[in-house]
Amino acid sequence: MFTTLESKLFINIRFKAIIIIGLVILFSTVNPIWQTWWFGIAAVTTILALGFGWHKRRIGNIETQKKKLEIQVAEKRKKLRLILEGTASVTGDDFFRLLVSSLGSLLGARYAFIAELTELENRVRTLAFWSAAGLLDNVEYNLTGTPCEKVLAGEMCHYLKDVQTLFPDDKDLVDLGAEGYLAIPLINLSGRVLGHLAVLDDKPMPVESQDLSIFKTFAARGAAELERKQAVKALKYRGDIEFIISTISTSFINLESAEVDSAINHALLTLGAFAGVDRCYIFLFSESGKTFLNTHEWCAKGIEPSFAPNRDLPIEDFPQVMEKLNQFENFYVPRIADLPPDASVLKEILQQQGVQSFIDVPMIYGKHLVGFLGFDSVKAEREWSVEDIRLLRLVGEIFVNALERRRAEKELQKTQAKLIQSEKMAALGKLTAGIAHELNTPVGALQSTMDTMNRCGVKIDQILENSNTLAELKNNNVYRKSLKILKENRQVATSAAERIMKVVISLRNFTRLDEAEFEKADIHEGLDSTLTLIQHEITNRVQIEKNYGDLPKIRHYPAELNQVLMTLLRNAAQAIEKKGVIIIETTSDGNNVYVKISDTGKGISPEKIKTLFELGFTTKDTRVGMGMGLINAYNIIQKHDGELKVESEVGKGTEFLITLPIN
Fold first, then answer.
1. E-strand stretches of 242-399
2. What is the reported pTM?
3. Given this model, what pLDDT does residue 107 score?
């Protein structure tokens, strides 16, 4: 606006100009010379008057525009403040959707989106995609040849117009009708690029300083939330991995040999579904070491198996794979197309199977490579994280222990059968080495469990250090999950310890169990038959007293139970040096039947009682020849869900009590 002085000056000049023009007209009629002089004065005066009028109008327009601009800036600041306040309590996908819709509306753009880098190199996926018509579906795309490529290198990019011409290979720009483009990288606190924030318009897109400030503010908020989301996701993923490892490890404790294959197949399903792969498989090397075969494989729906089951494949056809595995290293190929020319055979095989990415990790037992466990990705190329590979290797260790345990148990069963057939009890000393070898599996389970428990302990320590209140601690999902894993692993450790004890004190199938039948039978008949068979050992030396109660027939393995009875009766007879008595008493309480066998022999000292059912108890001066027989008897009763107890006093005798359930 004009000042008071300017207004007075302008009025003065305009008034004088009118007077001068009048005088020019008057004097021009009197003297033509004056006419020229006065016309010049009138013209200058008029120009000055008109100039001041134009200047006044121009300043008025500027003031109006300034006021409008101030109003617009105030409105944008108000909207920005409301947006920032509104997004303060929103997280995750809702935050990203609100972020891009608010940014697009605030800048008046046609499109706005936020994207994060994927596991695959040079690819991003949108977290939220907004258009003026509403939210669009998220997409994943390659950065090559797009304006985003430079942004993900850490630079902010602005293209006022002609963005389609500048990037002719980006067909998405054509589909969107983009003309202008503005994008900024999303960078975390450590300086790593996480993704980018972009706006596009279907007309030229100039950017003023205030708009740029708003854009950077939104980018900072987006980067912070994306970093938080990725941290939470990574933490949850690590917790899920620990849970998967614990679950699979637990399922293999106390597993029978016949159940190992089904347990591995189920574990492969769990592993493949969790990792989101298309195939998960195990290949084991043959004894000759010249071939390997596909022993176990899980395929996602619609995916064909890689090879026929148990088909021998020559190792020499896969030198690149074997070179890595023999060094106990992973063989990892994110892109089949990137395989070197010397791997043309492998590349052709994988392409025939539709594989786009794969990873194989070695399965090692002791210092020997026994096979490998792998992932295939068929539907798309992908990369696996360090956590994925760690999961694969740990599960591979669990599988190796189970497979080696089964192999060792089969070897053990063969050895036991030979011992029984040849009746060479002296060979039990050699068998002890095989039993000790079997301890590797439960010990390995204990080691794996302790490793998991230690990691959980570290997590809990970290959480305790960072937690200020008990309520905050109780609401921490990682803390609760870690406690749950600790409890589960405590059970795993207990089961592994029981397994160790079982392996040490038991030799299963010692008495031709495969020929026995599970059926209802009379225990008294078994006792009488057994007494008949050992009659020559007790004649004229041992008196038999039978106090039979009223027993129902129960379901059991008669041949096995008869073997237990023979062991106990024979040991009782051998414990009586000259003459004595063996008392057999049977009773029932409706739930169980009880068989008590007592003798008047030399008895067993308390120290020896503790190791009575352990391998090697053959003390001649107490109970003769009980080493293998009592172990076998104990296992048979355990198999029947029963109990075998012993009480003894040196110089007075020993009493064995068998308890068997009726149902």
1. 279-285, 291-299, 312-314, 331-333, 357-365, 368-377
2. 0.50
3. 84
